[in-house]
Amino acid sequence: MTLTSSELETDYALDRAAIAHFAEHGFVKLKNVLSPETIAAYEPEITGKVIELNTQQLPLEERDTYGKAFLQVTNLWQHSEPVLEFVSSPRLARIAAQLLGVRSVRLYHDQALYKESGGGVTPWHADQYYWPFATDRCVTVWIPLQETPMEMGPLAFASGSHTFEHGRDLPISDESERVLQEALAAQSFAEISEPFDLGEVSYHLGWTFHHAAPNNTDVPRRVMTVIYVDAEMEIAPPVNTNQEADLKNWMPGNAAGDRVSSPLNPVLYSS
């Protein structure tokens, strides 16, 4: 991994236009963040761990909407040195800090999101529904591990919806898809749905509403994500059972009112 790990440690030239776009729209897509060589070096290890650690055994047709959306495996970095190297990338973390406008960022957790061939829609939702954070300074990098055409179900965003508070109390569900589709359209938030080139990634805020279409190809849509939080983030009192579970699982030993500081949340970049 040493030939490509150097790219993960070098700075990406993030321009002011990209930072401004992120602030205005709640997301940004960035081309050529990772080279094809780097993706090719790490994808087999990430995919291997997804297969090894996946606990979803039901056939697609027997799952609920959430289960049909993707196979979800979290904190792969705890199970693999190469994945730890990938998730800890200063290159990726520095972009997150620059976009958030903070001095340093911590790891919240990682998630592999593999949408199987025939996998269904990922309903409209905002990630921060699940996260007990006191501010909105949290961001997800979405890293496709292959070129991702429209028929594979790339991530799509409601532009500017990070300012929209309606629907923030909805988990990923058929209800969130129905309610948010109507509400976002009524507010004229443009849906930005585009393919991803190999090496192109996106960053979106925790309150930016997003969804994804089904995967209508005959191969899985392989995606790795890393969630970053402001290193000074304070934990808010959980307001739902999902936030209670996240506090227990991803910030063990921390409590509401603490700064995020558990052993699972190392600082990945500091300016």
From TrEMBL:
Pfam assignment, any one: PhyH
Positions with biased composition (Polar residues): 262-271
Which Gene3D superfamilies would you find in this protein's record? q2cbj1_9rhob like domain
| Tree of life domain | Bacteria
Q: Which InterPro entries match?
A: Phytyl_CoA_dOase-like
SUPFAM superfamilies (UniProt xref): Clavaminate synthase-like (SSF51197)
Record region (Disordered): 252-271
This protein is called Phytanoyl-CoA dioxygenase
Organism field: Kribbella alba
